[in-house]
User: Which sequence fits this backbone?
């Protein structure tokens, strides 16, 4: 992989962040996993970066601050949506369980006949 | 009893049930592109077995009607997010229109209403030029010209903001008729649903109600609660009742202090609606919060610049030797009978921006000289030029006050843009989930949930890594700069 800051083939940090927000909005898990890999590579490269590249990356980081805030909000909204979906699933599971228990209880009551408490 | 005739009867029932199920599938296909239509699945019910001599004989199944694949919890969450996204989207549009007044277009040096920032600089610079040659008539003309440009741009900006406020007021009151017609329609649907299907899903009637609820959520912030017999009650997000089962309450409007206020019965609920969400919330937030705040800043700037410049000019001597009526820093009061004002003197802060204008028509009345120092003196022009660097507007120089106002507006826009992007993303995600839930295939539903979980986990990883990369990058940048 080429070093960042000097070659335009390499995506700017800002582009990465914007793309991550978009992929998360459309729930493109595959794209997000690709981006996670890109971030791992970027993280590795940063450790061996030269002075000029470091300065360039610092500039990119400044440019990406606003988009990072957007990404954070989208992530926050996704977590809230995920919580809703989890609660929904629990609700369904509860309904099913309640339904089964109620049915079983009704059957037991029937077998025991009148006077059962 | 297991006879040929009962077997044929069961087969006939099975065929009827299959036919009913096929009708439901055909209905799903026919309505695939109908907005708001929720797919239906057939319900099978086992027929009561017949027991003869202790032996139980099955009698097949009957199709008991379709059930829509909907989930009210998810739809309600979608409606709530839609309300937030509509509010921030509407507010954002209004804020961008406001910003266009103060930010020069790309490739241009001035914005729609001129460039107040450079007007302020030019105005005080004109006193610096006059200071060098206080009797020069062209330099005196230049002071009045730059004063006129500044006053004109401030006044035009304020007038444009007031026009925008009036337009938002109209838009806001225009939404009320739509809100009222939607709440009436929902109340009617409630009545139908409660009588037709008090214990179960009412199919297309519920689709219609959900569609009306979605539209209502675009307009206004609401909370919804299911009532007995499959009814629905709707309140504003602050709790005012709009629909209770089969009856609806109408919102009304009335003029209060020059703008439209919104009432439910006799209660003014304008501020609650502003914070509630939907387009109406966005319009009202821009009308009652963003524009008044911008106007307030412009009024403060106009008032303080006008009164400070007037006070100094009135405490000096003009080119003809006439003194103003004011008192100078040394406590000497001028001998004049009429004040020497450059700008129309405002009497109060509110409205100062729109009414800002140049009152002086004769440039020789600019009091460049101090009291008793002769007409060639420049001490008062020097004092007026120094106002550029004086903290005369809320503890800030005029230029700093204005640039802070513009940057605060920019920050507000950036924040609302961020909110709007995230809320729209959330709406998209929920729509995807809702579509999957409406699908007849339960595997699709489980797969949609897995995708949501997988996306969230991958995005969390990306966020954590990006956050770390950015923090390190900023530190690396600092080190590079220091070395």
Assistant:
């Amino acid at each position: 992989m080429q070093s960042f800051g000097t070659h335009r083939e390499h995506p700017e940090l800002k582009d990465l962040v914007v793309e991550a927000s978009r992929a998360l909005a459309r729930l493109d898990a595959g794209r997000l996993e690709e981006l996670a890999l890109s971030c791992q590579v970027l993280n590795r490269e940063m450790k061996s970066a030269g002075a000029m590249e470091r300065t360039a990356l610092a500039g990119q980081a400044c440019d990406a601050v606003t988009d990072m805030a957007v990404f954070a909000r989208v992530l926050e909204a996704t977590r809230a949506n995920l919580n809703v979906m989890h609660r929904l699933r629990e609700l369904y599971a509860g309904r099913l369980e309640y339904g089964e228990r109620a049915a079983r209880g009704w059957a037991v009551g029937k077998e025991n006949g009148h006077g059962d408490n | 009893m297991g006879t040929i005739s009962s077997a044929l009867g069961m087969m006939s029932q099975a065929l009827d049930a299959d036919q009913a199920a096929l009708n439901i599938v055909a209905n799903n296909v026919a309505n695939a592109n109908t907005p708001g239509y929720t797919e239906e699945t057939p319900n099978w019910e086992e027929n009561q077995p017949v027991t003869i001599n202790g032996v139980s004989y099955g009698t097949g199944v009957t199709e008991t009607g379709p059930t829509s694949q909907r989930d009210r919890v998810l739809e309600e969450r979608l409606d709530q997010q839609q309300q937030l996204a509509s509010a921030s989207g509407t507010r954002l549009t209004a804020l961008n229109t406001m910003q266009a007044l103060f930010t020069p277009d790309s490739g241009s040096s001035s914005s729609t209403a001129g460039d107040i920032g450079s007007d302020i600089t030019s105005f005080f610079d004109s006193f610096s030029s006059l200071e060098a040659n206080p009797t020069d008539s062209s330099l005196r003309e230049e002071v009045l010209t730059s004063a006129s440009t500044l006053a004109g741009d401030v006044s035009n900006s304020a007038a444009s903001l007031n026009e925008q406020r009036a337009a938002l007021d109209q838009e806001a009151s225009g939404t009320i008729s739509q809100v009222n017609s939607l709440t009436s329609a929902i109340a009617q649907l409630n009545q139908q649903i409660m009588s037709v299907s008090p214990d179960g899903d009412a199919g297309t009637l519920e689709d219609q109600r959900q569609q009306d609820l979605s539209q209502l959520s675009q307009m206004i912030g609401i909370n919804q609660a299911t009532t007995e017999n499959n009814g629905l009650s709707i309140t504003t997000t602050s709790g005012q009742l709009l629909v209770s089962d089969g009856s609806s309450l109408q919102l009304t409007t009335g003029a209060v202090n020059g703008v439209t206020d919104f009432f439910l019965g006799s209660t003014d609920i304008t501020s609650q609606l502003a914070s509630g969400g939907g387009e109406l919330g966005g319009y009202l937030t821009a009308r009652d919060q963003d524009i008044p705040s911008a106007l307030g800043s412009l009024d403060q700037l106009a008032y303080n610049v006008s009164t400070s410049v007037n006070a100094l000019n009135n405490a000096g001597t003009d080119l003809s030797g006439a003194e103003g009526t004011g008192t100078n820093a040394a406590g000497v009061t001028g001998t004049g009978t009429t004040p020497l004002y450059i700008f129309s003197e405002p009497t109060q802060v509110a409205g100062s921006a729109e009414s800002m204008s140049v009152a002086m028509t004769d440039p020789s009345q600019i009091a460049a000289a101090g009291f008793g120092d002769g007409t060639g003196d420049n001490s008062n022009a020097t004092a007026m030029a120094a106002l550029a660097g004086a903290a005369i507007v809320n503890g800030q120089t005029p230029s700093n006050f204005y640039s802070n106002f513009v940057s605060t507006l920019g920050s507000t826009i950036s924040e609302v843009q961020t909110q709007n992007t995230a809320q729209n993303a959330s709406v998209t995600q929920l729509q995807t989930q809702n579509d999957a839930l409406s699908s007849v295939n339960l595997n699709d539903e489980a797969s949609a949930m897995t995708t949501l979980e997988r996306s969230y986990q991958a995005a969390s990883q990306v966020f954590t890594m990006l956050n770390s990369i950015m923090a390190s990058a900023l530190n690396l940048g600092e080190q590079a700069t220091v070395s």
